[in-house]
Amino acid sequence: MHDLVTKIIxxxxxxxxxxxxxxxxxxxxxxxxxxxxxxxxxxxAPFIAPHDPIEQNLEHRLLSPNTEYLLxxxxxxxxxxxxxIHGTSVSLQIGVMVVGIAAFVGxxxxxxxxxxxxxxxxxxxxxxxxxLAFPGIILALAIAGILGPSLYNIMLxxxxxxxxxxxRVVRGSVLSVKxxxxxxxxxxxxxxxxxxxFRHILPNVTAPVIVMATLGMAHVILAAAALxxxxxxxxxxxxxxxxxxxxxxxxxxxxxxxxxxxxxAIMVTVLAFNxxxxxxxxxxxxx
Amino acid sequence: xxxxxxxxxxxxxxxLLGVSVITFSMMHFVPGDPAEMIAMERYGxxxxxxxxxxxxxxxxxxxxxxxQYFRWLTNVLRGDLGYSFRTDRPVLDExxxxxxxxxxxxxxxxxxxxxxxxxxxxISATRQYxxxxxxxxxxxxxxxxxxNFWLGLLLILFFSLYLGWLPVFxxxxxxxxxxxxxxxxxxxxxxxTRLIRSSMLEVLGQDYIRAARAKGLKEKAVIYKxxxxxxxxxxxxxxxxxxxxxxxxxxxxxxxxxxxxxxxxLVDSIFARDFVLIQGCILFIAATFVLVNLLVDIFYTYLDxxxxxxxx
Lengths: 287, 312
Known about the structure:
The structure holds two protein chains of two kinds.
Chain A: H1 2-10, H2 15-24, H3 26-48, H4 80-116, H5 118-132, H6 136-147, H7 151-177, H8 181-188, H9 193-229, H10 241-248, H11 257-285
Helix pairs in contact in A: 1-7, 1-9, 3-4, 3-11, 4-5, 4-7, 4-9, 5-7, 6-7, 7-9, 8-9, 9-10, 9-11, 10-11
Chain B: H1 2-26, H2 34-43, H3 49-58, H4 65-77, H5 91-126, H6 131-145, H7 148-162, H8 174-204, H9 207-214, H10 219-241, H11 243-256, H12 262-271, H13 275-303
Helix pairs in contact in B: 1-13, 2-3, 5-6, 5-8, 5-11, 5-13, 6-8, 7-8, 7-11, 8-10, 8-11, 9-10, 10-13, 11-12, 12-13
């Protein structure tokens, strides 16, 4: 990762150039189009969902896909398609919130550690080392388990686990950037520490952060769905993809569509962010 | 080398201490009063304030936090991780009983991953940008993105319920191992394939490969004897580091396939709100992870004689 970050920083590309290259990258464009579509679905959910996502209709239990219920119904007679549509905003919100918090905390602490150096650096980085000693999802599992099952608790748990990698990468980038002349110039002009960190250094380390955040969306959405699948995240009747999969498990033999569609939704979303993130990484790192 | 190992072990001890502090403090974030909870576990719902205070004093929960921590740490170092609320058995016993199942599953998952990744990665690298390469790389991206819990269910749906070839769950003969190992190994295979490909590409551009070709060696010998051997060096570290995702995947696979391993024990203990057991599992998993990382690092220095870790 570190080599990659150095490459990304050395290559300093303008945003127009990155955008131009992205437009030529087929997978990136597919990814971006899917993400855009997902955002639209999330925003327009109340208008485009054919049924109420939580309204139960026991007469219509476990129906296979048909003209009224395009993706069938679950064991409580709820429309799967409507639940998937409403679930989009749940998953995207989790992704944005967790990545946002993790990136904010990680970038800030990484900047401070890299710029200040010395004891501050030691302290922050040793905390990072210790947190990285736990396999991520397992720590999140334990935190969510101890705090009790809820969507907020898994978001908190994933943020606690997630900020460390941002801090590590940003700190590494800062170490190489802070030796540059423009930082020295700013120091000579008497700029304060905070100003130098956020106005002069931060813009130079954002590229790797953007790559990490895009791939991080994929990772967080997947992890949150996994935790909900295990029963620790979203609680009924919230239409969340992971918990829909979990609910469908009991009816795999009679109603396999309960298992197939939510999983497909998770995979397509994760794939889209991975497409875009991978492309961004290639474009920013390639000379 | 020796200095490096010593320094690395010093760091490991520090990290393990940090890990112990975090795991210990977890118990203090449990909503509610732990003394009350334990008292209720022991004596039922109808308990008096005196009983709670008795339990608190007995377990030392009325002591300052740092004393509680040192007492707990001393016990942990003696191998005493406490007793499970639910079964009343020592936590360490519970974990050790489940350990073989998890190790078996993890090894099988790793085997699946390498069996897919090595040939696919090598073929992709030797035919860079060909159709085969493009398809494998797309497959790898798919493999990274497919939720393993969904993959597990699809495998059950197809191989167990539809074809009826393999058992749905449980631990037994090799037929029980196939689906969980595939569930666990697929994601890892995807990451490892990409790595082997890029590592092979780098090695194939080296002078000694050109020299091997120049002296008239068969292409097969060049690729498998000269290139692959060197390309696998960085892969060793990654496979070691993937131990984490292997453990994470094991939790999912064990839950789906009712595999009696540590991952399932952890999830069960979470739902039973058996906090001492949760704490024990987390501590055990993190400590194992730290140890494996140390071993991988040391093994790596042996593998690649170019690397010398000097004490700074």
